[in-house]
Amino acid sequence: MKNIRKDSCDVLVIGTGAAGCAAAISAAERTAKVILANKGAFGRSGTTCLGSVIYAAALGHEDGRDSPEYHFLDTVVEGRYIGNQELVKVLAEEAPRTVYDLERYGVAWYKRGNNRINPSEYNYYQLPSPPHRYSRGVFNDERTGREMQDALCREVLKHSRDIRVVDDLYIWKIVRNNNNDERLQGAFGLDMRTGEIVAITGKAVVLATGGGGSCYKVTDTDTGATGDGYSLAMDAGAELMDMEFTQFYPTAFVYPESLRGMIMAVSALWTSGLRLYNADEERFMAQKYPDSAENLPRDILSRSIFMEILGGKATPHGGVWLDGSAIPNWEEVRKSRPRSFMWPERFGISGHRFEVAPTSHFTMGGVRINEKCETCVPGLYAAGEAAGGVHGGNRLAGNALAECVVFGQIAGTEAAKLRKENTRDIDDSAVRREEDKLRLLFNPEQARGKKSSSFFISRLKEIMYRSAGVVRERNALETAQKEISELKDEAGHDLKITPGKIFNYDQIHAFELFNMMDICQMTVKAALIRQESRGAHYRRDFPDSDNKDWLKNIIFQRRNGKLQTRTEDVKTPYVSPGEPS
Ligand SMILES: Cc1cc2nc3c(=O)[nH]c(=O)nc-3n(C[C@H](O)[C@H](O)[C@H](O)COP(=O)(O)OP(=O)(O)OC[C@H]3O[C@@H](n4cnc5c(N)ncnc54)[C@H](O)[C@@H]3O)c2cc1C
Fold first, then answer.
1. How far apart are CA 128 and CA 43, in angstroms?
2. From CA 480, how far away is CA 475, in angstroms rounded?
3. How far is 229 from 165, CA to CA, in rounded Å?
4. Element at 522 (helix H, strand E)
5. Residue 353: which H helix or E strand, with range?
6. Cα torsion 87, 89, 91, 94: sign
7. Which domains, ranges and CATH numbers included, belong to the chain?
8. pLDDT band (50, 70, 90) for residue 427
9. Are the C-beta atoms of residues 340 and 143 closer than 8 Å to each other?
10. Which atom of ligand 1 is least distant from the CA of 211?
11. What SS3 class is residue 258?
12. What's the whole-number mean pLDDT along residues 140-164?
C-alpha cells in the first residue's frame, strides 16, 4: 500500500491553462477555497502558452457592423450546425466582456487608443480571420496565448489566500462516494515529487485538462495534451460528445524530427506565394484547384496533402514539400511577419523548401456540459478544450481561447456555489479499492513486461494518424479499431514500468497511455458510426454531408462499467441549416 496523503478544498480545479486559471480566479472571488492542480509546471504547461494569434470577440472596434449575433452565426455555421447553440450563444455574448477582464489582469492587447474612463470605448485592433465575417480577433503580437497565460497566472497568485497551486500532481481518478451514487467526493492524485497518493476531498471538481492532440503522431499541441480529462470524466459517469472531430492544421514540419508537428506557416502567408509539391514534383493543389491553388481553407489543404501522402507521393519523411522560392520578397515577408513563419534558420535549417504534413491541432469533442458548465455528474464541471459542444464539427480561429475564459469563469462561479455543501472525507478503503485495480501502475516493480509506455504510445499515434486522422474510410477505421484493441491487450501484460517514486515519468506515461487508448477507441468508433463527411471529419467513402440523417451528436457514457454509445438529434433553437445566416 502506498502512502496516502489527505487534502481538502471547496473546489478542485484540474489544469492551469487559460480555462483552469479563469475557473480558479472566479471560484476564489466567490470565497471558495481552491486547489489548482497541474501535472506540469504552473504557467509553463498546457496548450494555452502556445496559442499563437487571436482571441475572438465581437467588440465591433475594427468593423462597426460586427455583433455577438454574427459571431454566434459564424460559429454555428463553421461548426456545421452540430454545436450546442446555447453554448455558442454564451460564448458570443460573453467574449467581449472577457477581453476587458483579461486587460485588467494585465494582457496588453494591441490598441489604437486607451480610454480608461469608459472601457467600451477602448479602440482595439482586431484581425480578420475568415470565415469570421468581420475582423474580430484581438491579439498581442503573435504570442496571444503566452500573454494570456502570464496574466492569468499573475492574477491567480494575487488570490493566494484562497487558491493553492499544486504542481506535479497527476490526477488519475474522480471519486464518487462508496455506492457510486450521485455524490462527488473529490479526486485521487499522484504526487510526482514524492510518489504519494493524494486523496483530495472537494465539493466540486472542474476539469480544465485541455485536449487530446497528442493522440496523433504529428501534433503542435503540448505533449501533455493526452486527453486525461476525457478519460477521468468518462470513468466518473459523465457524457462525452463529438469525439470524432479533430481539427488538423495543414502544414507542420515533419522533418527535422526535433520540429515535428510545429506549424510551418500560418494562413496569412499563403497569399504571399507559398507552393506545395509532392515527391514527384507535381504542384498538386494547382492541378486540382487551378483558380485558387494553395489559397484554400485549412481543411481542404489538409485533406489534399494527406491524399498525396496516402497516394504514395510522400517526401522521404512522410510529407509534401512546402516551397517558398516563388515568393519574390521573401525577406520583406519575413520582416513584416516575424513570427508568422517558424523561420527555419532559427533551427539551423536553410533554404526555401521544407517537408510538411497536417498536424493535429484541436479537439472539438469533449465532456458534455450545459450553459453552467455542469456535466451530468453533480459537482463535476468542465471548461476549455476539455469540454465539448461549442465548436461542433469545426472550430473558428480565436474561439478556443475565448471559450477557455468565458466557460472557465462560469465553471468557477458555479462550482463555488457548492462550497457550503457537506462532503464526507474520502476514506482509505476507497483508495485501496482503486489501488487493487491499478496494481501494475502503482507497483512498477511487479510490472514484468518488456515494452515501455513510449513504445505503445508511438504505435498508437501512428495508427491514429494514418487511419483516423485527416482522411478516413471504413476499412482503415476497422483496422485501427482492431489494432488499438490488440495494443491494449498487449499493454495489459507486456508493459514495463521503471520502478522509482520520485518523478517517475514512466509511471505517469503509463497512466496517459491507458487514457489515450480509451479516447482513441472512442474517436475511431465515432468516426465509423458517422457515415458522412462534416467539418473536420472527412470520410472518403461518404464524402458529402447528410443533414437528413446526420444532424446528430454521438454520445458516449459509461454505465455499470460498460461503455454505451448513442446518437442524439441536434437541437437548433436559433438557426437551422438552410436558413439565412
Ligand atoms: C500551436 C497552437 C496555436 C493555437 N493558437 C490559437 C489561437 O490563436 N487562438 C485560439 O483561440 N486558440 C488557439 N489554439 C488553441 C488553444 O490554445 C487551446 O485550445 C487552449 O489554450 C486550451 O486551453 P485549456 O485551458 O483548455 O487547456 P491547456 O492550456 O492545454 O491546459 C491543460 C492543463 O491541464 C493539465 N492537466 C492535464 N491532464 C492533467 C491531469 N491528469 N492531472 C493534472 N493536470 C492535468 C495540464 O498540465 C495543463 O495545465 C492554438 C493551439 C495550438 C496547438
1. 28
2. 9
3. 18
4. helix 505-529
5. strand 353-363
6. negative
7. 249-360 (3.90.700.10), 440-551 (1.20.58.100)
8. confident
9. no
10. 30
11. helix
12. 95
Largest CA distance in the chain: 70
| Spatial separation of the C-alpha atoms in residues 413 and 22, rounded to whole Å | 10
Q: Does residue 95 contact residue 59 with C-beta atoms inside 8 Å? A: no
How far is it, in rounded angstroms, from Cα 240 to Cα 536?
A: 18
Judge whether 208 and 14 are in contact, CB under 8 Å. Answer: yes
Q: What is the DSSP letter of 555?
A: E
**266-316 pLDDT per residue, tens:** 655 666 778 999 999 999 999 999 998 888 877 888 999 999 999 999 999
> Which residues, 6+ apart, have CB-to-CB distance to 134 below 8 Å?
58, 60, 62, 63, 65, 66, 70, 128
Residue 540, amino acid: R
Q: List the grid coordinates of 168.
A: 506535479
Quote the CA–CA distance of 350 and 366 in Å, as a whole number: 40
- Residue where the block lists cell 485501427: 480
Which pLDDT score, from 0 to 100, does residue 347 have?
58
The C-alpha cell that represents 226 in the structure block: 493526452
- Using only C-alpha atoms, the chain has a radius of gyration, in whole angstroms, of 23
Q: Which atom of ligand 1 is nearest to the CA of 18?
A: 25
Triad 543, 313, 295: Cα angle to 5°: 60
d(CA 404, CA 323): 35
Give yes or no for residue 15 CB within 6 A of ligand 1: yes
* 224 C-beta closer than 6 A to ligand 1: yes
Rounded to the nearest angstrom, the distance between the alpha carbon of 216 and the centre of ligand 1 is: 16
Q: Report which protein residue has its CA nearest ligand 1's atom 5.
A: 51
Residue with cell 525577406: 331
Hey, CA dihedral for 200, 208, 237, 564, is it positive or negative? Answer: negative
> Does the beta carbon of 263 sit less than 6 angstroms from any atom of ligand 1?
yes
* Helix H or strand E encompassing 358: strand 353-363
Which residue is listed with cell 475572438?
Answer: 56
Cβ–Cβ under 8 Å, residues 186 and 8: yes
Amino acid at 520: C
- DSSP labels, 162-211: TEEEE-SEEEEEEEE-TT--S-EEEEEEEETTT--EEEEEEEEEEE----
Residue 38 near ligand 1, beta carbon < 6 Å = yes
Roughly how many angstroms between the first and final C-alpha of the chain, as a whole number?
Answer: 60
> Could you give the dihedral angle defined by the CA atoms of residues 345, 350, 352 and 355, in that order, rounded to the nearest 10 degrees?
-90
Residue with cell 469525439: 243
Q: Is 103 helix (H, G, I), strand (E, B) or coil?
A: helix
CB 46 less than 6 A from any atom of ligand 1: yes
Determine contact, residues 367/238, Cβ cutoff 8 Å.
Answer: yes
Residue 69's SS3 state is: helix
Is the CB–ligand 1 distance for residue 395 below 6 Å?
A: no
Whether 14 lines ligand 1, by a CB cut-off of 6 Å, is: yes
Beta carbon of 400 within 6 Å of any ligand 1 atom: yes
By C-alpha distance, which of 71, 57, 143 is closest to 107? 143
Tally the C-alpha atoms within 13 A of residue 500's C-alpha that lie toward its C-beta.
Answer: 12
Ligand 1 atom closest to the Cα of residue 171 is 42
Q: Is the pLDDT of residue 117 over 60?
A: no
pLDDT reported for residue 121 = 60
pLDDT at 453 over 60: yes
Residue 572 has pLDDT above 90, yes or no: yes
